[in-house]
Amino acid sequence: MIKIFEDEQAVTNEIATEMKQHLLNDENPVFCLASGTTPEKSYRQFAAEAKNESTLNNLRIVSLDEWVGIDQASEGSCYQMLNKDLFSPLRLQNSQIEFFKGTQTNLEKECHRIDRFIENNPITFSLMGVGMNGHIGLNEPGCRVLDHSCVVDLSEKTKIVAQKYFNQPTSLEKGITLGLGQIIKSKRVIVVMTGERKAHIAKEIIMNREAQLPAQVLLGHDHIDFYLDREAAMWIEEAQLNKGE
Questions:
Q1: What pTM did the predictor assign?
Q2: Which of 7, 17, 217, 234 has its CA 20 to 30 A from that of 109?
């Protein structure tokens, strides 16, 4: 379902609340979380509200994606963004975090490692951002719907947009990511788009079904909701929203 909120803060509040609900109510909470600027406010709010919960000891985090060739400790890595907004404020232990290492020599083995973790620890909650080209994780336009993780070639748009995360120009050619099928199998998924900058891609995803964008694969599932604020939804026709797709 597509849900429109008054503003970004309302989206943030709803996501943080749902994250806490899953932390408290899931028997074995396993979160798969997108990095980036869109969800960071939700992570900070969730961390502030949940930092004293005893059930944090049960929380596991599994990686969504990472840049190939970028060390986890580097500014701009997917790990480092989540560490700043979530892992560190919650004081999570390393044993609670299963994350792709993009500097590994054998990336196929790295994919198998994360895939095995998910097989043994099914994802209970996923929060996905949407790239400016409609990607989910690093599943770029034209990708196949895979039920396993893989190494991908980054689109030119992703290479350009991703530079904002780094302190200096950084060469990015490939990424490592969960497959769309793995994300869909999560018990609960929220896909979030906020701000005027996401209005164009939100319109493409929701109104142009011929676009064949990765994010469109997540439409139409009962356990997956798209959360937009009014700025992101500014070009979406009311008739499309009323379909509840």
A1: 0.94
A2: 217
